[in-house]
Amino acid sequence: MTLSLNLTHLYPDNLNLYGDLGNVVTLKRRCEWLGIDCQLKALNLGDAATSGQTDIYFMGGGQDNDQLAVVDDFHQLKQVAIRDDTEAGTIFLGVCGGYQLMGKTFLMGDNQETKGLGIINVKTQAPSKEVKGRCIGNLVVELPSETHAEMQSIYEQPKEIPQTLVGFENHSGQTYLGQDVAPLANTHAGFGNNHEAEYEGARYKNVFGSYMHGSMLPKNPHFADYMIWLALTRKYKDPTIKLKALPDMEEIAAHQYIVQRYGKP
Amino acid sequence: MAISNLFKRILLVPILLSSRLLVLGLRVSKRGSGTALPGLIVSKYFPFAFEALVNQIPNIIVITGTNGKTTTQTILNSLLSQSSEVKLLRNSAGANLLQGILSELMRQSNDFGSLDFTHAVLEVEEATLPRIAKALKPKIIAVTNLYRDQLDAYGEIDITEAYIRDGIAQSPKAIVVLNGDDPRTSRLADGLGNQTHYVSLPPEYTDSLPYEGETRNTDEIADNILRSQNIRINDDLTTSFDIQGTVDNVDVQYHNAQISSPGFFHVYNALTAVTIGKLLKIDDQKLMQGLKAFEPAFGRGELLVKTEGQKSINYRLLLIKNPASFTLNLDLLRKIPRLRLILAINDNTADSKDVSWLWDSELELLNEANIDWIFCTGVRAKDMHLRLKYAFLDPAIPISTMESIQAAIDQSFDKADDGETICVMPTYTSMLEFRKRMGLMLN
């Protein structure tokens, strides 16, 4: 039996800044190489979402006016379905603006806090007066040991995978995690969620938020595989499903380059 | 000359003298060429110097926009240089911030702060325009387009649009020349009193350009617009086209105009330069000669030749700055019979520190190209290779990765046969390094 996954790209016409398309390309191509039939669907402004139709959601960031339009549309046409899905364990990845939007409040360009989609308990605020400027630069973060161990267990053959994630952050909003939300990783280089905290991103059930552009998934193939594996085991209700261990020479070379250049020793 | 102006001119003398000593000192002590530093210092401590220098030049032409500034400037220089009455000053590409422009003005002035030029054609960075528009008092402002530019420089294209509009609003007497098809550029002078001219390409070309929003239909514009038709990209990677329209209510019609830059997006630059040439009363024959005589600016379709013994290899340089220019150039490469390609990606500030833009560029277009081999080079060679891996449907396409640009030149020279042309697509600083290693300096 060929395994299949439905991948939904939220608002690709509006939220498409900073190379986040690379994440969708990566999920699609890796599914192909793993022998999984991946059906990609876009939900734009005006499209209603139906729960139970999607295995992985992806949402990137956009310009202010686009993000504002998205919030209204989301509440009218998508909120109930997607909230039901994510509460039931559907995989969701939001990057940068997409991450901020998922929370309770996010930030507009004039530092105005605005109501978000409310699918994860995080808040994004304006930076305090003491911290000036945006968080810009390369990010190197370390995954919790349990997550890393679980990531290593998803393959048919043993596979060496990094415990790090790498990317490039570019945000002024400062994100704070609420109850039931865990950080995605600890920050080694760069800022991550905010100026004070030493961690980056968020996880609630299978909802992931991250500030990593770069794009995020191409240089972190282990994280892409983990999302695919979570989606498969959930969809087929079979925790024993394993993935082929792809060679990933180019992915790991690009990953290690960033770790060596920016990561702490 | 008003007293205060005279006073400023007198003050220029010691400023210029000390900045020249500074440049000399930097050169002698080998701490750098000292090109931008005097401008930086003088603009900070003697802000009046900029205005006192630039206002001596009667015709100031400003070119701004996200892509095509340098090519437009170079074509325009070629048109104006045909006229013996024109004494032309230009800033060099990349020196398009206040300190770069000021440094150039200081370098070109004599020891008494006098500038003997009739025209200045200045490439101005988008965010710099509103800061210097009042002092510049431009006669003409041309805006090439508003694509998404290097993303971590300012964040968002809306801000860039606001910067340019602000610059135009501060220059009520300037004649404005706009890309009529680009919805963001085309509306820049709406509601302002400036005399406005447009340039436009047929819809079959504009549809493939990365304009944001609906491409504007320019059919309703009857006057003060130049349109091009019958655009052909020739085998030698030059471009031919016809021009039709009016400038200042005078009919303009040229057949078979030709520029030696490959790509229909350069036709916009040519139309913009011709519009400015007409506004400056350059006669038609000189305009056509100027178009033909134009040689692409460095990196913008420029041809470099490396010769060792009996063997010569051509390198055609196509600068890539953002997803827009990368995708447009990739589109062009599909037409080349046998493609040998060097992709050179650095991540310095001038290149964009975030390489995410590689993923917004349509590398998938290369699936339709006839590829011999590809080299990925520059400090982010590995990111480029990774992008290609996810773009290519055929995993057997030969790709090599070497961070050293020198190694890429050496190995590509060895690999190619005598007389062959290699296409090089570098980001800004990798292009500077590529040229340097080919024995060419910027100036």
Task: Walk me through what this model shows.
- The complex is a heterodimer of chains A (about 260) and B (about 450).
- With about 260 residues, chain A is α/β, with parallel strands linked by helices.
- Chain A has a single domain (about 5-260), classed as Class I glutamine amidotransferase (GATase) domain (Rossmann fold).
- Chain A is about 30% helix and about 25% strand.
- Chain A has seven helices and 14 strands.
- Chain A has a six-stranded mixed β-sheet with strand order 2-1-3-4-14-13.
- The termini of chain A are far apart.
- The mean pLDDT of chain A is about 90.
- With about 450 residues, chain B is an alpha/beta fold.
- Chain B has helices at about 5-30, 35-45, 50-55, 70-80, 100-110, 130-135, 150-155, 155-170, 185, 205, 265-280, 285-295, 325-335, 355-360, 380-390, 405-415, 430-435; strands at about 60-65, 90, 120-125, 140-145, 175-180, 195-200, 225-235, 240-245, 250-260, 300-310, 310-320, 340-345, 370-375, 400, 420-425.
- In chain B, strands 2-3-1-4-5-6-7-8-9 form a nine-stranded mixed β-sheet, with helices on both faces. A six-stranded mixed β-sheet of chain B has the order 10-11-15-12-13-14.
- In chain B, α4 crosses α11 and α4 (about 70-80) crosses α12.
- Chain B is globular and about 75 Å long.
- At the A-B interface, α1, β8 and α7 of A face α14 and α15 of B.
Q: Which features would summarize this protein structure in a list?
A:
heterodimer; A: 265 residues; alpha/beta; Rossmann fold; six-stranded mixed beta sheet; four-stranded antiparallel beta sheet; 7 helices; globular; B: 443 residues; UDP-N-acetylmuramoyl-L-alanine:D-glutamate ligase; Protein-Tyrosine Phosphatase, Chain A; 2 domains; nine-stranded mixed beta sheet
